[in-house]
Input
Amino acid sequence: VAFHSWGGGSPEDYSAWADLAERLKLPLLVNELGVDGGAWRTKAFDSYCYAMEEVRMYQELLLYARPQGTMQWEFTSDYSIVQESRNAAGEVVLTPTVRFFFVKHFCNLTPHHSDALGVASDNPKVLFTAFAGTVSGQPAYTLHVANLGAEREAFLSGLPRGLTHLYAVRTSEEERFQTLDAVEVRDGTLKLVLAPQSLLTLTTLPPE
Output
């Protein structure tokens, strides 16, 4: 079972797809993940605002549609997540856009073949997803925290008791996949300051 996410939908729309896939006992795929099918024709396509809308969509799809896989539309020149230019020698130069780095959070920092964990946020401007898997025989965890509003303080609880710290990577309007100081975890709880309009990933996987 598969759908394209152009135009977006409500949590109820996404949940209906998840329910259908479960009734049919088939995996659900989002095989064209994108916000606006016509945005590539405009300057808005490479704007930070548009990139944050993609982050919102990623988080809402993962939370409510619960897909087994997604496909960013796309990794080729159409709807590209990089800008193409030529240098003085005529060679092609690829420059990542901010959309590239947001996608990198989800692709590089989520454990492969991981399971989505049940999570909840008490603020509609903070969308939170979490994943647990195994890497090299060891438990691996990744938490993606999207702050869609102003800077705010946040607390996360219910983390595995054995965790003492998590690596932190953030993309914001000023940062691109920036590795931050590790975050200390105490008794399954941690405290954060979320940058405005940002995506923060906390993970047991060393950032690459």
Summary: The chain has three helices and 13 strands.
